[in-house]
Here is the input.
Amino acid sequence: MNKDKLKEIFKEAAEIVSKVPENMQPVAFSRAIDILLGEEPDTKTPIKKRRKKAPSSKKTKEKIEDTSVQRILDELDRTKHPIVNDLSDVLDRSLLVLKIAKDEFDIDGFTPPQIAKILTEIFRLPTSRQAVYNRLSKAVKLVDSKSVGKANIYRIMQPGEKYLAKIIEKKEKKEKKEKR
Here is the structure.
């Protein structure tokens, strides 16, 4: 093949490629050259199809665990616990959620995403799962942590309940002083 013919093919391929989106131009140029030279593209390479993933046990586990969260979302009356809105620290709010779940629903422990979901959806206090995790993971004297798979389930302990009682007592005293 002579040089002039080859130059013509490259020029024509460049014109074709100029109409293709920029991110696809290198592949389109190669393909255009192949077609203009009369060569068949390599079709022996099979195209990989995405496989549908089998349902994982993690999702099944989450569905089972979320039944307790759903129960709280359905049954908890936030007006009975106005103190949650008065607490400013994520740790205090998380401890109170754990205490409410334990005392009123007989549910002993939640994961940080579950606590964040309860705080966000019931009490309208936007909280991230990471914020809950960061605060609870450092409060080793107040909560018990149990690993289940990749998740940590946090349960309030007696020192956590005492700590929470002191916080609530301080808030109530402060409110009484403000009312006077």
